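dude i think i finally got it to work??
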Amino acid sequence: MKNILCALVLTCLGSVSAGFAQNTAIVIPNAEMQAKLKEMIEKKVQDDSLRVANAGDANVGVFFIHLNPGQTPQEPIQLMSHNDVTEVYYVIKGEGTLYHGGTIENPTPRDLATTGGPSKGGPSKGKLTQSVGPGDVFIVPANTPHQVNLGAKTEMVYIVFRFDPKKHLQLK
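look at this
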């Protein structure tokens, strides 16, 4: 599974790697990832970056998402759409529902400078649902309405790789 994930990330990076701003790889050791996840759980933080790097043609970020049991979707379901940022999700732990597609009705602009740049959100119409769990990977292109919600089942942890050609994400 690790090899599949690495291949996916390298494929996605291929479009931005030609202008990579440095000539070395950026490594995020597992110990650093585990420490960040522990910190997020203790501080009850849901979405935080491990690293955001300048990859030449885009900033590329690696983020952890942590959802606690009992977090349920707000009704009506609120979806979000990032204007410029494409995301690749890899579910590590837990099960939930991916809501995606359709349209956002009466979208409200949001500036998520640390996690997604200019975005919009609101109630949705015509969305699709997909159950997701450990090992699942899904790609959410820029401008695609989406949301992952846990319901009341279990804790959920996933990694999000964010590709930001307009460089809204803050380097870290």
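DSSP finds two helices and twelve strands in the chain.
im so relieved honestly
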